[in-house]
Here is the input.
Amino acid sequence: MASIDEVVAGEILPAKEAISMLDQVDLGPTIDIPEIPPEADPDSTPLEERERMKKEIMRLKTERNAIVLSHNYVQSDIQDVSDAVGDSLFLAREGAKSDADVLCEPSVLFMNQILAAMKKPHQTVLAPDLGAVCSLAAHADPERIREWKANHPRGLVISYVNTYLDVKAESDYCCASANAAMVLEHVLTHSDPDQPILFLPDVFLGFFAAKFIEKSGHPLDRLWLMLGACHVHEAIRPHHVNEQMRLHPEAAVVVHPECGCTSACMRQVTTGLVPEDLLQFRSTQGMVKLVREVPQETIIVATEVGNLYPMSKAAPEKTLVPASREALCAFMKQNTLQNLYISLRDMVHEVEADPDLAERAKVPIERMISIG
Ligand code: SF4
Here is the structure.
């Protein structure tokens, strides 16, 4: 067993070891977190100016035969001028089926890369800001995966959607939080029981995968995990959720499985401390669906706070309480109405995929898009 002092973020370990170290390893970001620009707050720009830019964006979309695909975490003004708003899986599917000439995607680079790898020859992929990267994707080093594959020649690699193309190119399957269980189920059904499986890079979602594998009656010994985490979700700890549950005892709770509170919340459910229907785990898009389905008036939401906007649009009558108001992704907030407008106006910040990587990454991406 690896010594806890030697283990660093991004390492690959047998699942049991990785899970035993969950709360002890420093999973902090390995890249700099940018400042959130003032324009990320719509109220920092006069209303007239915002309306003018929104009109211009709508005009440019028609002129360029462009669509805007926005992630749930980007600011509300951008969501309002978008053709589709959703999580990474939804946006990948929307991009893949579109014939528009321009796919402009306010999100982060790993999502833009998916569009660039899957695009049709006549299409151009634009990003409002090329500095919008991701702390979770930064934990996944393709060299470590190649080493693991060399040591496990029959191994299967499932990479989470939050990875760059060079990591996807080393993967057999790709999944998002919305279809992680379905992809795992598929892999378990279509592999030999002794084939090792590497799930990466999010160790909290990996914990979720481990529980799924155990529940399916498969030995946990075949699972390996990478010690990666998103700095935004990892920082949502059990005390945040517990405090909001104390303040809102009547509320339902919904947790994104990337959160640092995932294992503790799951224990509360499995030990019967909290009923299963009161504390649920959902993907980004699954939360938007759930808000309409639960009978409770108040819902405590453990994820990036941007997701509260599409949730509130889905169920305006509900009260949504963020588990942590600090849960803001500075990378997603690099997308502003201003740089979206400039990107469409000047056709700048084109995202291109290396042809070789794109060819190899397409296989796991297509599997992700088609499963679930
Ligand atoms: S919220 Fe986390 S996983 Fe999502 S883009 Fe931001 S840093 Fe990456």
In short: The domain at 236-322 is CATH 3.40.50.10800 (Rossmann fold). The first helix runs from residue 15 to 20.
